[in-house]
C-alpha cells in the first residue's frame, strides 16, 4: 500500500510539474573525454524518468571512475550504453517521444508499435502486474502482440499521450523496472569481474549490452541470447570453471551465431563447441605435464 501511495504522489507531482529534486552533478574525477557522454546520459534520463533516476545513473558510473584499468574511452562506452539501456523502450516512453515530436512541428503519422502482452503487463506496478501475469499465462496470452498507436493529430490523442507519458513514475514500481534493474546490475558486475579476471576482454563484455535492443520479440530474443552468452562463457570463465584464454574472441564467435530464434539452436551449439574446445585444450595441457 505504501508503494502505491508513493506512486500516486509521484504521478500527480509529474502531472502538476512539482519536482523538488535537483539535477545530479557529474562525478568527480570524470575524464574530460567522457564528460559530454555522461552529460548527455543525464539529460536523457532526466527526460526519461527524472532527477533521482539520473542520479542512479551517475552513481553507477562512479563505480568505474578513477580506476587505473578503466581508460576514458572504455568509461565513455560504458556510460553511453548504460544510459541507452536505462532508457529502455516501453509504452510510456513511446508516448513521451511522440509528445516530443509536437514541439518540433506537426506530428508524423507513424506505424503502430507491436508490444507483447507481457511487456504491457510488466509496465504495471507489481501489485497489479503479478496477478495479471498469472491470468495471462494461463490463457496463453503472454507472448501475443498488441498493436498500439500513439496518435497526436487530435486533442483527444494529445491528452492520451500526456496521460501515458505522465505515468512514468509508475516505472519504478513496475515488474519491468525490476527486471531491467537486475539486468543492468548484472551487466555492470560482469564488467567489474572481467576487469579483475581478464582485463583484455573487458571491451567485449561491455559491448554485449548492444545485444539487448528495442521491444517485443526483438527485446526478448536479445536478452535471452545475452544470458546464454554470459552464463555459458563469461561467468564460468570468471569462476575458474572454463579455461578460456581469449574470452573476447569467444564472445565474438558466439554473437556471430546468434539469430532471431527463440530456441537459440545455432547459438547454443556454438557455445557448446567453444566450451568443448577450451576444455579439450586444458585436458591436452594437463596430459602433457
Overview of the structural elements:
With 289 residues, the chain is mainly α. Helix content is 65%, strand content 3%. It has helices at residues 2-16, 35-48, 51-62, 72-86, 91-102, 117-122, 126-139, 155-166, 175-197, 202-207, 216-239, 247-257, 265-288; strands at 113-116, 145-148. It has a two-stranded antiparallel ribbon with strand order 1-2. The longest helix has 24 residues, at 216-239.
Descriptive key words:
mainly alpha; about 290 residues; about 65% helix
Provide the fold topology:
Elements: H1 2-16, H2 35-48, H3 51-62, H4 72-86, H5 91-102, E1 113-116, H6 117-122, H7 126-139, E2 145-148, H8 155-166, H9 175-197, H10 202-207, H11 216-239, H12 247-257, H13 265-288
Antiparallel strand pairs: 1-2
Helix pairs in contact: 2-3, 2-4, 5-8, 9-11, 11-12, 11-13, 12-13
